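The records we work with from here on pair a chain with its fold. The integers have meaning only within a learned vocabulary of local backbone shapes. A complete example follows; check for yourself that the lines match position by position.

:::
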Amino acid sequence: MERVGRSRGTIYRWVREGKIQTMQPMRAVYLNVEDLLRAEASMKPGRPRKTVDPKPTREERSTAPCSYLAAHRRVERAHGRARTHLCAFCGLPAHQWSYKGGSPDEIRGPKLPGGTDEIAWSPRVHDYQPLCVSCHRVFDGLQRLDRDTATKMLKALT
């Protein structure tokens, strides 16, 4: 006896569509194997695919706009906690991740919903550097001038 490699649901669908003739004495369904094989041969190989949009790539997901907190969670997930790194300026143990600035995907807005202070952040994880608290405060204070100037001044101070 030949086996038909289709699921029960597919075979019942073929019965409903009239591709296979059945007999139903006493509620049991008897199928003609030749009909099954003919119906299976008429089907295209593989199952029909749903027409959906393709999943976004990793790069598209990592640059999608996000909140300030989500950006910092992304950085921590990608690079680990800042405490496991050294400060980018002074070399002491770092405590916080700091946005370097200058990203083409930079987002400006309040740190928290409903907040009044406007800050900048980036959805890209490579736009952040580990800093100790004191360098982070100086860097954020100097960034109001210019990020490049702040970096040069901090490197000169340390």
